[in-house]
Amino acid sequence: MNNRRARTVLALLSCCFCLSLAQQPGRFNIVLQNAGISSMHTAVTHYGNVIFLDRTNIGPSAINLVGNCRDNPADMMTTHDCTAHSVIYDPSSNTVRPVFIYSDTWCSSGQFLPNGTLMQTGGSADGGSIIRYFTPCSSGSWCNWMESSTNLQSSRWYASNQILPDGRIIVVGGRGVYNYEFQPTGGQFYLQVPQGYGRLPG
Known about the structure:
By secondary structure, the protein is α+β, with helices and mostly antiparallel strands. It has a single domain (about 1-190), classed as Galactose oxidase/kelch, beta-propeller (Methylamine Dehydrogenase, Chain H). It contains 1 helix and 14 strands. It has a 4-stranded antiparallel beta sheet with strand order 1-2-5-6, with no helix packed on it. The chain has a 4-stranded antiparallel beta sheet with strand order 7-8-9-10, with no helix packed on it. It has a 4-stranded antiparallel beta sheet with strand order 11-12-13-14, with no helix packed on it. The protein starts with a helix and ends in a 10-residue tail after the last strand. The model has no long low-confidence stretch (mean pLDDT about 85).
C-alpha cells in the first residue's frame, strides 16, 4: 500500500513539474542594438545568417556601403547614395555587413529557390518589374544582391511568390495586377486571372 501511494505521489509531482515547465513564458533578447537599416523583409539563410532588406527610396540608412555607392537616377529620394539598404547578420559573431542592392524593394515579395538563393521580385517605382537574387555565402565571404537581366512581365507591388514542385516560382498578382507569371518563364507569358475572380468591389 505504501509503495503504491509513493508511486502515485511521485507521478503527481512529475505531472506538476511538467505543467510548470510548460507554462514558463518565452522571452526575447536584443542581440544587436542597431543593424543600420529598418528591416522590411528578413530571411534566415541555409548558412544560418540572416538577410535584412529595406527600401531604397527613403534616404540614407545608418550603415555605410564601404567603397561602393549606389548611383540610380530613377530613385525617388537619393540618386547618389553611399549607404546600405540591405545587411546580412551573422549570429556567430553578432555582426552585420552591408549588402549592395540597386533598385527599390518597397512592397516587393520573395521566395527561396531550391538551391537556397533568395529571389525577390517587384517593388516600388524603379523596382516594380525587377527580379533580384541573393545567393547566400558563408561567414567571412562576400555576397551581394544581383539584378536579373530580364524583368517581370508585369510591374508588381505587393505580389505573392510561391515555389512550385518543379522549382519554378509562380508570381501572383500585386496591387492592381490581375495576372500571374512564372520565373523562370519557360517561354510562358503572363496569364490573366479570369474576369471578376478574386477582385474586391470598387
